[in-house]
Amino acid sequence: MRKFPVAVQPYTVREQLAQDYTGTLEKIAEIGYRGIELGRPPEGMTIKEQKALLDRLGLQVVGTHTGFDSFDFDPNVIADYLDKVDGGRFAAISLRFDSKEDVIAKAAKLNEIGGQFRSRNVQFLYHNHDWEFQQFEGEAVLDILLRETDPELVKLELDTYWAYKGGVDPVTYLGKLQNRCPLLHIKDAEEGEEAFFAEIGEGILDFRAISQAAEQVGTQWLVVEQDQSRRDPLESLAISYRNLKAMDLVES
């Protein structure tokens, strides 16, 4: 089974970053993470200073997010940022939908923006939550999006936890995403009706099977994210990384 480079989505430690940006990134690097999905630096830090910090820590920006439920961003500004940090060429978005017509209209916009990103050598990604597995006229939102978007212009950043919460098997869904899921958000879920977020390997999802499916469809990076934690979030990130290493899934 392939070993993957492993990154972190810093939403996990959003409060810690707000209090101590540099120190939190240092702790993420100490755990062993090689990459991070990151946006522009906080006030008082330049992008050049941010890049110097990341270089010192051995953290690569694997991509960034454009925002949530809004097309109010400039693809060129995002591409410029990725150029300046010498980052990975991925930009992800999440949206909400209220009808099949809304899904189709937003898919057209995703194609348009994906074309703008492609002209700057950036791959546009759609990141799911659980609501993309609701159905309009008998078809899941995410299936409509995948059908209505150009696979070269819009790919997916599948989230394993939200897929599970949406009622689908992440392994099975990954099988539909050949060459269309370069980044995979990995999260675990506690057993029980609530299915609260869990550290990787501490819940009920099978990450060996998930990683095998990811390998088969061409996933490049595993990205650990935990929206909420019953522990200190940095401890949660350390547990997830340690368990991934124990599963022999981490590229050294």
Provide an overview of this structure:
- The chain has 252 residues and is α/β, with parallel strands linked by helices.
- The protein has one domain: TIM Barrel (Alpha-Beta Barrel).
- The protein contains ten helices and twelve strands.
- It has an eight-stranded parallel sheet.
- Helix 2 runs parallel beside helix 10 and helix 5 packs across helix 6.
Keywords:
alpha/beta; isomerase; isomerase activity; IolE/XylAMocC-like; Sugar phosphate isomerase/epimerase; 10 helices; 12 strands; two-stranded antiparallel sheet; eight-stranded parallel sheet; 252 residues; TIM Barrel
Reported by name, the CATH topology is TIM Barrel
What spatial order of strands do you see in the largest sheet? 8-5-4-3-2-1-12-9
Helix content: 40-55%
Instruction: List the helices and strands in order.
Output: EHHEHEHEHEEEHEHHEEEHEH
Radius of gyration: 17 Å
Q: What is the CATH superfamily label?
A: Divalent-metal-dependent TIM barrel enzymes
Largest sheet: 8 strands, parallel
| Straight-line distance between termini | 14 Å
In total, the number of domains comes to 1
The DSSP helix count reads 10
**CATH uppermost class:** Alpha Beta
By oligomeric state, this entry counts as: single chain
Q: What percent strand?
A: 15-25%
CATH architecture name? Alpha-Beta Barrel
Shape: globular
Mean pLDDT: 97
Structural class: alpha/beta
Number of strands: 12
Low-confidence blocks of residues? none
